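Risk mitigation, structural track. In case the binding assays with guanosine-5'-monophosphate fail to produce interpretable data, a predicted complex structure has been prepared as a fallback.
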Amino acid sequence: MTQILKMQVSIINLLSGTASLRLRAMDTLFSKIIDRKIPADIVYEDDLCLAFKDIHPQAPIHILIIPKRPIAKIVEATTADQQLLGHLMLTAGRIATDMGVSDAYRLVVNNGADAGQSVFHLHIHLLAGRSFNWPPG
Ligand code: 5GP
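Fallback model:
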């Protein structure tokens, strides 16, 4: 195999790997919430993200902020996602302000099953309305 052919194969492998990661994230129930295939209590939406109430709230306020572009987990985000990640953080802050809890709230991102991630579509938990312990469990 020539050097150029080898490079082309590597690029194709790389691109198909990225595509399959994105496809995996697209299959989750959060994608179905984005597509309105399953219901959710939506509190905010724009072109880039959606925010809705967690079905099993761990605090009086428990909102999930998700990108519409599917990313399975935070470690899989790339520099191409930099602006999107900033947007998610700012949106979390805006929602906390709108809900009157800007003085005290916690943002959590679980990355991987052992860290507590159960839905493989990137999401920020916004928790508020009670006091929180540190270190977290
Ligand atoms: P993770 O464990 O992946 O960090 O967080 C996933 C969150 O999604 C959990 O807090 C869980 O309660 C929430 N969740 C799971 N299924 C649904 C659902 O169908 N609707 C909503 N609104 N939240 C869900």
